[in-house]
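Section 3.1: Structural characterization of target chains.
Under the original work plan, the team committed to producing a structural model for every single-chain target entering the pipeline before any wet-lab resources were allocated. The record below documents one such target. The sequence was received from the expression subgroup and is listed exactly as submitted; it comprises 429 residues.
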Amino acid sequence: MFLNIQNKEDRIALVGLGYVGLPLALALAKKCSVIGFEIDGNRLQKLKNGEDPSRELEPQAFAQADILFTDSLDELSKARFFIVAVPTPVDAYNQPDLKPLISATETVGKVLKKGDYVVYESTVYPGCTEEVCLPLLERISGLSCGPDFKAGYSPERINPGDKEHTLTNTVKIVSGSDKEALEQIARVYELVIEAGVHPAPNIKVAEMAKIIENTQRDVNIALMNELSIIAGRLGINIYDVIEAAGTKWNFIKFSPGLVGGHCIGVDPYYLVHKAYALKYHPQIIRAGRYVNDTMGGYIAKKLVKRIIATGARIMGCRILVMGITYKENVSDIRNSKVVDIINELKDFGVEVDVVDPFADSNEVIHEYGINLSAAPSGKYRAVVVAVTHDSYKNLSEEYIESLCEENGFLLDIKGIYRNKIQRLNYMSL
């Protein structure tokens, strides 16, 4: 299989061309012949025009790439090595939503042939690939995993907005349904992963390795969020505490903040789901999720209390929120916890304006029913810097002061203006 792919006799297909699938598809397309399968018509047209709908990749990333973007099953059937990289969100009850994964698996199953390979990159709970995906592939294709086709799991490790830790310089975990599958899958990924691959002993290990990466971060951030609440009640700044504690060589510098997005704010729920199925009730993971999921409301209430304490009327007061994406310097708004702050403020009768240089206004309206403002207008009782986009980091106190009413507030969630504000009422976590 590998030699045929390397010689462009066999083609690779990427099913799902979002922030994970597209960079991998284009990297492989510099070495192999690739089919990029995308069912969203608007996204597909942008891809054909050499434009990344996620706005992560520059146009030159499409240059000299041997790739066909299509939504045709006939074209997809020409591939022999399939990589599935679709989203795996949670539903309104924080249960795994496998609909995109199941739909992609059904699509691949319709074109699967003897000798083909199928590799999953979507983040799932341990066991999902072998318990859900492979049986579905077998049922739809009429083939059997092992004698007829091979399968594997290689979790994505792309960090949106991160130009330092990239696809090619980050070690890739690979696993396979048998020894031969592992070897061939590893060799395919080694074509583009300069940092090399780490062969996991089986698919479940690879699945769980991915999910604990983000669960570990979630729990550590939850600890810092809880410590920030305690520090606030003590009347001290948590960032001062972290700076002091960080002088010890073995202190791990996690920071408090909002935990949203499609990874850290989602993946722990997949592990919790599987733990419950195994009759185990995880305590630390659930507690961490509770702390992080409630931080938006806590932050908004903290600001409201401070404003009321000045004697100002909260009903009808104007507050500016700067940033609505789930993290800095990206356009992705999925599962943004800034929305929790906005909604909580609105519940108090506050008029909230929201600006963000990266977010797409149509996407924000569609996802959250929130209208983005092109720019701040008028005076605000408070300015909330919710996302630390680079363009916000060097704003002067004079500029922020110009946005505020007399006796206005700056709520600096990530503490980027700490020790820089002299006149405004200043708050951070």
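The mean pLDDT is 95.
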